[in-house]
Amino acid sequence: MKVKPEIPNNNLPPLPPEREAIETKVILRQVSKAAVALAELKGMALTLPNQNILINAIVLKEAKASSEIENIVTTQDSLYQALTVKAYKPDLATKEVLRYREALFAGADFIRKKDFLSVNGIIQIQNILEENDAGLRNMPGTVLKNSSGKVVYTPPDDKVVIEKLMANFEQYLNNTETDDVSLLIKLAVLHFQFESIHPFYDGNGRTGRIINVLFLMLKGLLDNPILYLSGFIIRNKGEYYRLLEDVNFYGKWEPWILYILNGIEETALETITQIKNINGLMLDTIKKVKEEAPLVYSKEFIELLFEHPYSKIEHLEFKGIAKRKTAGKYLAELARIGILDSHKIGKEIIYINKKLYDLLKN
Ligand SMILES: Nc1ncnc2c1ncn2[C@@H]1O[C@H](COP(=O)(O)OP(=O)(O)OP(=O)(O)O)[C@@H](O)[C@H]1O
Ligand SMILES: [Mg+2]
Question: Integer distance in angstroms from the first to the last C-alpha of the chain?
């Protein structure tokens, strides 16, 4: 039966699709390119002395990018302030972005502990994101509309169908026997399926994008959650929606899979550049501090300024780098030589690693 935009897609086929449809020659060629870039990223991440530097920086950027698909606009500054300044009262948009970050960390923890991604785990992720425990949809009425209000797709509305499709999704995602298809193809297939089941009332896009990176971790393609397609999807949003529709209505897998593979390659290369830039900036910073403020130099101190682009005295105390008074002097000294910018916010002074902040903003 033909899939129609206004009719609930209760016949959405379970996974996997026919092998010939998802493993074409063109796809396989692009798989190799994406896989090479991803493997390089995995290795490159290890060149950073402290993985938290990258994770903190990239996760926040992703949280912001992903939330902007939903048109929640917030500034990088308000995010950092919300994370650093005690008295800061974040607005709703900022809170929402921070929840994305929290959901992502919870998901990554889940994978590290269980080595499995269950439907329940996915429900927990969405629960953190949306701050509600509605769980899987069990009432009809969810439709996807385009920006002019036209219905473009109606996901399954039968509770039993949704549950079955989710169980099948979990099985395909975790089952290693089906990993003889390239894992990156599998990721593209899974992302399509998740969005088409559309298991929740809201947050399906964001939950699906979190699942993508968790899948890469689960399968050992990354050690940490550092590859995000949200930036790529925002830049190519129209195409993203259109290609999802093409799979649903016409079974056209190839362009969809190529789109995701291109996204993985492009994003991995971008992230590699970003790591190189962070590494370069860190070396420059070390050099400058050693030359101009040698008494306060320590490796841990510099790393801290990269782990927290907005830092404060407590951070140094917490890491055991210095006691309160000395910590204050250390930070002031780096402000003096122009590495940090100090700002008084309420009762607190925060110190911004200017160059890092600018680098991460782009
Ligand atoms: N035609 C379609 N077929 C399947 N899925 C679609 C289609 N159009 C959009 N989607 C998916 O629906 C998501 C939006 O669903 P929902 O509003 O539940 O998620 P969100 O996280 O709140 O929003 P967003 O993804 O915009 O941030 C899109 O990100 C996309 O992945
Ligand atoms: Mg939404």
Answer: 46
